[in-house]
Amino acid sequence: MNITWTALLLSLKVAGFATLINLFAATALAYGISRSRFWGRELLDSMLSLPMVMPPTVLGYYLLVLLGKKSGLGRFLYETFGIQLIFTWQAATIAAAVVALPLVYKPARAAFESVNPQFEQAAQTMGLSSWAIFCRISFPLAWRGILGGLLLGFARAFGEFGATLMVAGSIAGQTQTLSIAIYEAVQAGDDALANSMVLIASIVCIGVLLLANRLASGHTVRRATVK
Protein backbone atom coordinates (compact mmCIF):
# COMPACT_ATOMS: atom_id res chain seq x y z
CA MET A 1 0.00 0.00 0.00
CA ASN A 2 1.52 3.36 -1.01
CA ILE A 3 2.11 6.27 1.35
CA THR A 4 -1.02 8.17 0.23
CA TRP A 5 -3.50 5.45 1.14
CA THR A 6 -1.64 4.57 4.33
CA ALA A 7 -1.74 8.20 5.45
CA LEU A 8 -5.40 8.54 4.38
CA LEU A 9 -6.46 5.47 6.36
CA LEU A 10 -4.52 6.66 9.41
CA SER A 11 -6.14 10.12 9.17
CA LEU A 12 -9.61 8.54 8.94
CA LYS A 13 -8.78 6.30 11.92
CA VAL A 14 -7.49 9.20 14.03
CA ALA A 15 -10.42 11.46 13.09
CA GLY A 16 -12.93 8.66 13.72
CA PHE A 17 -11.68 7.91 17.22
CA ALA A 18 -11.32 11.63 18.02
CA THR A 19 -14.95 12.14 16.96
CA LEU A 20 -16.03 9.19 19.13
CA ILE A 21 -14.25 10.77 22.13
CA ASN A 22 -15.98 14.09 21.49
CA LEU A 23 -19.37 12.39 21.07
CA PHE A 24 -19.23 11.54 24.76
CA ALA A 25 -16.95 14.27 26.18
CA ALA A 26 -18.24 17.32 24.32
CA THR A 27 -21.90 16.22 24.51
CA ALA A 28 -21.68 15.61 28.27
CA LEU A 29 -19.95 18.96 28.84
CA ALA A 30 -22.45 20.80 26.63
CA TYR A 31 -25.45 19.25 28.38
CA GLY A 32 -24.01 19.82 31.86
CA ILE A 33 -23.19 23.48 31.24
CA SER A 34 -26.48 24.21 29.44
CA ARG A 35 -28.47 22.82 32.38
CA SER A 36 -26.54 24.25 35.34
CA ARG A 37 -25.62 27.58 36.87
CA PHE A 38 -22.47 27.82 38.97
CA TRP A 39 -19.63 30.19 39.69
CA GLY A 40 -17.00 30.01 36.96
CA ARG A 41 -19.45 28.69 34.35
CA GLU A 42 -18.45 31.29 31.76
CA LEU A 43 -14.77 30.74 32.57
CA LEU A 44 -15.18 27.00 31.95
CA ASP A 45 -17.02 27.76 28.70
CA SER A 46 -14.12 29.95 27.61
CA MET A 47 -11.60 27.24 28.50
CA LEU A 48 -13.52 24.68 26.42
CA SER A 49 -13.55 27.11 23.49
CA LEU A 50 -9.84 27.89 23.82
CA PRO A 51 -8.58 25.26 21.31
CA MET A 52 -10.53 27.15 18.61
CA VAL A 53 -8.28 30.22 18.88
CA MET A 54 -5.05 28.90 20.42
CA PRO A 55 -2.24 27.93 17.99
CA PRO A 56 -2.23 24.12 17.50
CA THR A 57 1.50 23.97 18.23
CA VAL A 58 0.87 25.53 21.66
CA LEU A 59 -1.85 22.93 22.35
CA GLY A 60 0.56 20.26 21.18
CA TYR A 61 3.22 21.52 23.57
CA TYR A 62 0.76 21.42 26.50
CA LEU A 63 -0.19 17.84 25.57
CA LEU A 64 3.48 16.91 25.20
CA VAL A 65 4.15 18.17 28.73
CA LEU A 66 0.98 16.49 30.08
CA LEU A 67 1.47 13.08 28.46
CA GLY A 68 5.28 12.85 28.52
CA LYS A 69 6.99 10.42 30.89
CA LYS A 70 8.26 13.31 33.03
CA SER A 71 4.72 14.40 33.93
CA GLY A 72 2.69 12.84 36.74
CA LEU A 73 0.07 11.41 34.35
CA GLY A 74 2.62 10.17 31.82
CA ARG A 75 4.77 8.54 34.53
CA PHE A 76 1.68 6.91 36.10
CA LEU A 77 0.55 5.43 32.77
CA TYR A 78 4.02 4.14 31.94
CA GLU A 79 4.94 2.71 35.35
CA THR A 80 1.48 1.25 36.09
CA PHE A 81 0.27 0.02 32.71
CA GLY A 82 3.40 0.24 30.54
CA ILE A 83 1.61 2.75 28.29
CA GLN A 84 3.69 5.35 26.46
CA LEU A 85 1.43 7.66 24.47
CA ILE A 86 3.94 10.06 22.92
CA PHE A 87 4.78 9.25 19.27
CA THR A 88 1.83 6.89 18.85
CA TRP A 89 -1.39 7.15 16.84
CA GLN A 90 -3.26 7.28 20.16
CA ALA A 91 -1.44 10.53 20.98
CA ALA A 92 -2.45 11.86 17.55
CA THR A 93 -6.05 10.94 18.37
CA ILE A 94 -5.94 12.81 21.70
CA ALA A 95 -4.46 15.87 19.99
CA ALA A 96 -7.11 15.78 17.25
CA ALA A 97 -9.90 15.37 19.83
CA VAL A 98 -8.69 18.37 21.85
CA VAL A 99 -8.38 20.61 18.77
CA ALA A 100 -11.84 19.58 17.49
CA LEU A 101 -13.56 19.81 20.90
CA PRO A 102 -14.97 23.37 20.51
CA LEU A 103 -16.48 22.56 17.11
CA VAL A 104 -18.56 19.83 18.75
CA TYR A 105 -19.15 21.49 22.12
CA LYS A 106 -20.49 24.84 20.80
CA PRO A 107 -23.22 23.44 18.48
CA ALA A 108 -24.16 20.80 21.05
CA ARG A 109 -24.62 23.43 23.76
CA ALA A 110 -26.71 25.61 21.42
CA ALA A 111 -28.81 22.57 20.48
CA PHE A 112 -29.49 21.67 24.13
CA GLU A 113 -30.32 25.29 24.98
CA SER A 114 -32.86 25.37 22.11
CA VAL A 115 -34.84 22.50 23.65
CA ASN A 116 -38.04 23.82 25.23
CA PRO A 117 -37.51 23.48 29.02
CA GLN A 118 -41.24 22.88 29.52
CA PHE A 119 -40.85 19.43 27.94
CA GLU A 120 -38.17 18.49 30.50
CA GLN A 121 -40.15 20.03 33.38
CA ALA A 122 -43.26 18.05 32.36
CA ALA A 123 -41.22 14.83 32.25
CA GLN A 124 -39.75 15.64 35.68
CA THR A 125 -43.23 16.04 37.20
CA MET A 126 -44.11 12.62 35.75
CA GLY A 127 -41.27 11.11 37.78
CA LEU A 128 -38.67 10.48 35.06
CA SER A 129 -35.04 10.43 36.21
CA SER A 130 -32.47 12.91 34.89
CA TRP A 131 -30.91 10.16 32.73
CA ALA A 132 -34.32 9.19 31.30
CA ILE A 133 -35.10 12.84 30.53
CA PHE A 134 -31.76 13.17 28.71
CA CYS A 135 -32.21 9.95 26.70
CA ARG A 136 -35.91 10.36 25.86
CA ILE A 137 -36.30 14.14 25.48
CA SER A 138 -33.16 16.30 25.45
CA PHE A 139 -30.90 14.20 23.20
CA PRO A 140 -33.58 13.25 20.61
CA LEU A 141 -34.53 16.94 20.23
CA ALA A 142 -30.91 18.13 20.01
CA TRP A 143 -29.39 15.34 17.91
CA ARG A 144 -29.23 17.31 14.65
CA GLY A 145 -27.12 20.05 16.23
CA ILE A 146 -24.89 17.48 17.91
CA LEU A 147 -24.43 15.52 14.67
CA GLY A 148 -23.64 18.72 12.75
CA GLY A 149 -20.97 19.56 15.34
CA LEU A 150 -19.55 16.04 15.17
CA LEU A 151 -19.20 16.30 11.39
CA LEU A 152 -17.37 19.64 11.70
CA GLY A 153 -15.20 18.14 14.42
CA PHE A 154 -14.43 15.13 12.21
CA ALA A 155 -13.31 17.42 9.37
CA ARG A 156 -11.12 19.44 11.77
CA ALA A 157 -9.60 16.29 13.29
CA PHE A 158 -9.02 14.84 9.81
CA GLY A 159 -6.94 17.86 8.78
CA GLU A 160 -5.16 18.43 12.11
CA PHE A 161 -1.43 19.12 11.72
CA GLY A 162 0.40 21.19 14.36
CA ALA A 163 -0.68 19.54 17.62
CA THR A 164 -0.48 16.07 16.04
CA LEU A 165 3.07 16.66 14.83
CA MET A 166 4.12 17.86 18.30
CA VAL A 167 2.88 14.78 20.20
CA ALA A 168 2.99 12.02 17.57
CA GLY A 169 5.81 13.09 15.23
CA SER A 170 5.99 11.90 11.64
CA ILE A 171 6.61 8.14 11.55
CA ALA A 172 5.60 6.70 8.17
CA GLY A 173 2.91 4.05 8.52
CA GLN A 174 2.45 4.75 12.25
CA THR A 175 1.81 8.43 13.01
CA GLN A 176 2.15 10.13 9.62
CA THR A 177 -1.35 11.43 8.89
CA LEU A 178 -2.37 12.85 5.52
CA SER A 179 -1.66 16.46 6.55
CA ILE A 180 1.81 15.56 7.78
CA ALA A 181 2.47 13.44 4.68
CA ILE A 182 1.57 16.45 2.50
CA TYR A 183 4.04 18.60 4.44
CA GLU A 184 6.75 15.93 4.07
CA ALA A 185 6.07 15.62 0.31
CA VAL A 186 6.33 19.39 -0.17
CA GLN A 187 9.56 19.48 1.85
CA ALA A 188 10.96 16.70 -0.36
CA GLY A 189 9.92 18.55 -3.55
CA ASP A 190 7.55 15.74 -4.64
CA ASP A 191 4.82 17.98 -6.07
CA ALA A 192 2.92 15.16 -7.80
CA LEU A 193 2.52 13.23 -4.54
CA ALA A 194 1.61 16.41 -2.62
CA ASN A 195 -1.01 17.36 -5.23
CA SER A 196 -2.66 13.94 -5.16
CA MET A 197 -2.89 13.97 -1.35
CA VAL A 198 -4.19 17.56 -1.29
CA LEU A 199 -6.93 16.56 -3.75
CA ILE A 200 -7.97 13.59 -1.60
CA ALA A 201 -7.99 15.69 1.60
CA SER A 202 -10.06 18.38 -0.12
CA ILE A 203 -12.64 15.86 -1.41
CA VAL A 204 -13.08 14.33 2.06
CA CYS A 205 -13.46 17.74 3.78
CA ILE A 206 -15.88 19.10 1.14
CA GLY A 207 -17.99 15.94 1.41
CA VAL A 208 -18.20 16.25 5.20
CA LEU A 209 -19.09 19.96 5.02
CA LEU A 210 -21.82 19.33 2.43
CA LEU A 211 -23.33 16.73 4.74
CA ALA A 212 -23.13 19.12 7.72
CA ASN A 213 -24.79 21.91 5.70
CA ARG A 214 -27.53 19.53 4.57
CA LEU A 215 -28.26 18.65 8.18
CA ALA A 216 -28.28 22.32 9.17
CA SER A 217 -30.67 23.28 6.37
CA GLY A 218 -32.95 20.38 7.28
CA HIS A 219 -32.98 21.58 10.88
CA THR A 220 -33.86 25.12 9.75
CA VAL A 221 -36.73 23.90 7.54
CA ARG A 222 -38.02 21.73 10.38
CA ARG A 223 -37.97 24.66 12.85
CA ALA A 224 -39.74 26.91 10.33
CA THR A 225 -42.41 24.23 9.76
CA VAL A 226 -42.96 23.86 13.50
CA LYS A 227 -43.41 27.65 13.86
TrEMBL record:
Membrane topology value: Multi-pass membrane protein
Residue ranges occupied by any ABC transmembrane type-1 domain in the UniProt entry: 8-212
Protein name: Molybdenum transport system permease
Highest taxon in the source lineage: Bacteria
Keywords: Cell inner membrane, Cell membrane, Membrane, Molybdenum, Transmembrane, Transmembrane helix, Transport
Regions that span the bilayer: 46-68, 80-105, 125-143, 150-172, 192-212
A Pfam family annotated for this UniProt entry: BPD_transp_1
Subcellular location: Cell inner membrane; Cell membrane
Assigned protein family: Belongs to the binding-protein-dependent transport system permease family. CysTW subfamily.
Organism: Undibacterium cyanobacteriorum
Major subcellular site: membrane
Purpose of the protein: Part of the binding-protein-dependent transport system for molybdenum; probably responsible for the translocation of the substrate across the membrane.
UniProt cross-references to InterPro entries, sorted A to Z: MetI-like (IPR000515), MetI-like_sf (IPR035906), ModB_ABC (IPR011867)
